[in-house]
Design goal:
Blueprint (H helix, E strand, L loop, with lengths): L1 E6 L4 H10 L5 E7 L12 H7 L4 E4 L3 H13 L3 E4 L6 H11 L4 E4 L5 H16 L4 E8 L9 H11 L5 E7 L5 E8 L4 E8 L3 H14 L5 E3 L1 H4 L4
Parallel strand pairs: 1-2, 1-3, 3-4, 4-5, 5-10, 6-7
Antiparallel strand pairs: 6-8, 8-9
Helix pairs in contact: 1-7, 3-4, 5-6
This protein binds nicotinamide-adenine-dinucleotide (NAD).
Length: about 230
Amino acid sequence: MIKLAVSGANGRMGRLIIDRIATEEGMEAVASFDIRGEGVVHPEKMADTLRDRGVDVLVDFTVADAAIENAITAAQSGVNLVIGTTGFSEDDLLKLRSEIEDRVAAVISPNFSIGVNLLWRLIKDAAAVLEGYDISIIEAHHRTKIDAPSGTALRAAKVLEDMGREVDIHAIRGGDIVGDHTVIFSGIGERFEIAHHAQSRATFVNGVIRAVRWIHRRENGIYSMDDVMGWR
Ligand SMILES: NC(=O)c1ccc[n+]([C@@H]2O[C@H](COP(=O)([O-])OP(=O)(O)OC[C@H]3O[C@@H](n4cnc5c(N)ncnc54)[C@H](O)[C@@H]3O)[C@@H](O)[C@H]2O)c1
């Protein structure tokens, strides 16, 4: 039985993840952390709670600053991690890496949807073929999303920039849009688009559950969904 804790347990993602764990074979949620709401443990008590309840994996969907603190606490407690929080700076990611990679195993991904992970792969093929095309990324999310551009758009841009391509990113915030990403390659006489539309947060939850099963008892280190999917 995999014993899970969720931080951000009263948030949109946290609530869905806890509901899903209750229906999954071989795993149970033994602790919920949040700074607001009923029935949760305050993150100040995270280290003691992780130890007392024998947590195997902490899933974090909070905000960047909180996620770093939570991840360090979990790593110091020997608890593996699945981190979905976005909005990390390059420095944040360096700090996370140095604090956790020798202590525990962690999957960190700005998007747990299988379709988005495929998009990150497919745009490499497109960019290799469509030389000289202008590349733009348009992303759209609900009005309360804090970070812009999205972690998903930034990851797509990095994939393309690492190939020596220039990329424009445009972010839209409005209503209850779950998450849309379109990568547009504009040439002379044609336009090629690769698009992903998250229709519900269930797509992220599916990937999180897959990552939890994969990271449990994995060797220490930092992994991505490419590892979980067996793509490298
Ligand atoms: N990787 C992915 O696939 C994916 C998918 C959706 C959202 N996200 C990201 O996940 C994060 C959460 O998204 P959301 O829509 O659930 O947000 P949300 O605002 O609904 O929930 C965040 C929760 O974290 C809590 N929180 C804040 N500080 C905390 C702390 N120190 N310890 C514990 N809990 C704390 C808040 O009180 C809130 O309940 C965001 O960064 C978002 O961009 C990632």
